[in-house]
Amino acid sequence: MRALLMGLAFISQVALAALELPVDTESEIFGLGIAATEAEAERAALSSVALKLSANIQVEQKENLKSVDGQISSSFEELVNISSGKLVFPAYRVIAHSEGLDGNKQVVISLGKQQLLDFYDHYLLMEYQQLSTTLVGLNNFKPIDAIPFLLDTHHKLVANERILTVIAGLTPDGVSPLLQKQHISLYQQTQALLHRGGWQVVSDSRSHALAEMLSQSISENKLLVQSETNYQFVLSTREQSAKKANQFRTKWNIQIELRQQGQLESIKSWKIALISEPEITHEATVDSLAVQLAEKLGSNILFTLLGNVENEN
């Protein structure tokens, strides 16, 4: 009985031992993930691979893979397109899994470099073919009607630049001339169509923070202020402030209208209501509302407002 108990204790200790990340080879890349569930651990492992790939680093580790129970899983997961840090992945292989002393699941995954190259090459060819078809159709659109699709296309091309960087880091041959040519051509076509419209910001005094953020977003998206057809974002903010128990609270009711220059009728409009937390001064509530507004609209405000092709008025 004592021998049996000792054996069970040994097995328990072994099963709970930590996995270690294997050395990347010329043909494979490995990732280690730790999380509460195996599914989350696999995603964490993909994130670790994504960091290697996006940094364009051939990571070398000194540790060896130790599957402490002597078993290594070699079964492939179902073919899925899974996003980790906005980087798309093909099927991956779970080669080891365990449970740590803290109860968290540990997973080691493997991805073949040639598998990644083939997947990304096919992915970009299909993506560029679809984007090319979209751009041809947008030639006959008015700038205001085309802008959601053009911003979406621009957003996808920027995301694909990361994949091109990954491809360049996976092979000494670098990115194929065909993919480079397609990417540059689509980028130039997108910019030419974007530049058919000019985008300006007009605001009242209380909308200064939003006006600055929106103007910066227009600049970052490489849009023009003046062009063949010009549009204006007209911003207005109604502010209400109250003081209670020596603390201030402020409410903003913001309206954003998109108009063609010289027209009073809105093409699109958005309404945003924000309430601050209690603060010692009115200025502090205004600062906190500006932070709330930035968080709500995201880092690319123009894309938030217009870049969603399913966005409604």
From TrEMBL:
The keyword Signal is annotated on this UniProt entry: yes
Keywords: Signal
Signal peptide positions on this chain: 1-17
Official protein name in the record: LPP20 lipoprotein
